[in-house]
Every structure is written in structure tokens, then in C-alpha cells.
Design brief:
- The complex is a heterodimer of chains A (about 110) and B (about 110).
- Chain A has about 110 residues and is mainly beta.
- Helix content of chain A is about 0%, strand content about 50%.
- In chain A, a hairpin with a 2-residue loop joins β5 (about 45-50) and β6.
- The termini of chain A are far apart.
- The radius of gyration of chain A is 13 Å and the shape is globular.
- In chain B, the strands form two sheets. In chain B, strands 2, 4, 5, 9, 10 and 11 form a six-stranded mixed β-sheet that branches. Chain B has a five-stranded antiparallel β-sheet with strand order 1-3-8-7-6, with no helix packed on it.
- The chains are: A mainly beta (about 110), B mainly beta (about 110).
- The interface of A and B includes residues 42, 90, 97, 98 and 102 of A.
Chain lengths: ~110, ~110
């Protein structure tokens, strides 16, 4: 059971570079999420998707973009990386929203220098 | 807007002592979930509470949901080194809002 798989696990970016964090889930979940977690802090929702072709902003969407062309995949794009985007990024998924368990990927550690 | 406050931010305990973390919501919740994140790991689902006044136990962990469905607590009895990590609540109002987490630290 792969669950939620995200890549890369670690990445160093230079200021102004762009990159895509990949996320895929094999549980046929309709909801997918991207969170960021700054050191010693809680989770902040960046974007979420309720199904293929539908995405919506979360709490901290600025500087990021997402797409959801399939049920399985939910990539997160960072454009013009800034030091403030240094964080751990978690992709997650759930079946439905109300009261359903959220399953997290193992995280992607991103440093912008 | 909807907020979930979680306290304390950190709790240092001797192994064998008890640990408690509290979550308070600004609005009534339909349910609340608890997650554990080990150091360097990702959040893992522990439990969900739905009913007013609900109490659930998992071995040494006791979870409570307040009568007004605006607060919740997690109590760990006789902590062990395997309990180390950060415990998050996530309250469902019109959206899911995460508490900031309580980090459980075992004193050497």
C-alpha cells in the first residue's frame, strides 16, 4: 500500500527558481491537499482539491499554483522561489471531507537560499 | 473567522508522568480529529470525536470532546519515550482548522 507519495523528499532551490512538488495517491480519494509546516509550527493549508479539475485556495496560497488533471495526482508548483517558502510541504488526501481521516505523505523538505 | 487554539505549545515531562493538551474552538465543531507527528515524520491520524461529551480511550490515551463541542483534550497517562512527538487537533467547522500542536518532550 503506497498511500500518498510525494517527491522529492529534499530540495534546495535558489531564489527566483521554480519547481514542482509531485504528489500521487492510490486510494481513490477525491479530496487532496497541500500543507506547509514551518519549523516548530502547525500546518497551514496552501491549496486543496475536491476532485479532478477542481482546485481552491487555502490559507496561504500566494506564490504557489496547483492543478488536478487526474484523481491520483496533485502537483504543487512554486514560481519564483523566495526564502519565505523554506518549509516542509505535506501532500495529503481523504475520501470525502466531512469527518474523514486525512492521510499524509512523508513530506518534502524545501530550502530556498 | 474560525480559530482553533491549542495549548500548551510544549510540555516537558519525566517519563512516567502524565501529559495533557487542550484545544478550544471559537465556533461549534461538527467533529474533531487528533493526529500525532513523530519528530521528522508526518501527521498520523489517531482518532475522531463526533458526539457531545464523547470520551474515547486508546490504551494510555484518553480523548474528550466537550459538551458544547467547542473544546477537546488529549490525556496521556504514564508517558513513555514512544509518546514523544507533536500532537495536533483539527476541528471541523465549515472547514477543517488545525491547532498549532503541543510538543511532548521527555526529560532526560
Amino acid at each position: 500500500n503506497a498511500g500518498v507519495t510525494q517527491t522529492p523528499k529534499f530540495r534546495i532551490l535558489k531564489i527566483g527558481q521554480s519547481m514542482t512538488l509531485q504528489c500521487t495517491q492510490d486510494m481513490n480519494h477525491n479530496y487532496m491537499y497541500w500543507y506547509r509546516q514551518d519549523p516548530g509550527m502547525g500546518l497551514k493549508l496552501i491549496y486543496y482539491s475536491v476532485g479532478a479539475g477542481i482546485t481552491d485556495k487555502g490559507e496561504v496560497p500566494n506564490g504557489y499554483n496547483v492543478s488536478r488533471s487526474t484523481t491520483e495526482d496533485f502537483p504543487l508548483r512554486l514560481e519564483l522561489a523566495a526564502p519565505s517558502q523554506t518549509s516542509v510541504y505535506f501532500c495529503a488526501s481523504s475520501y470525502g471531507q466531512q469527518g474523514n481521516t486525512i492521510y499524509f505523505g512523508e513530506g518534502s523538505w524545501l530550502t530556498v537560499v | 473567522g474560525q480559530q482553533v487554539m491549542q495549548i500548551p505549545q510544549y510540555q516537558h515531562v519525566q517519563e512516567g508522568e502524565d501529559f495533557t493538551t487542550y484545544c478550544n474552538s471559537s465556533t461549534t465543531l461538527s467533529n474533531i480529529q487528533w493526529y500525532k507527528q513523530r519528530p521528522g515524520g508526518h501527521p498520523v491520524f489517531l482518532i475522531q470525536l463526533v458526539k457531545s461529551g464523547e470520551v474515547k480511550k486508546q490504551k494510555r490515551l484518553t480523548f474528550q470532546f466537550g459538551e458544547a463541542k467547542k473544546n477537546s483534550s488529549l490525556h496521556i497517562t504514564a508517558t513513555q519515550t514512544t509518546d514523544v512527538g507533536t500532537y495536533f487537533c483539527a476541528g471541523r467547522g465549515y472547514q477543517l482548522i488545525w491547532g498549532a500542536g503541543t510538543k511532548l518532550i521527555i526529560k532526560p
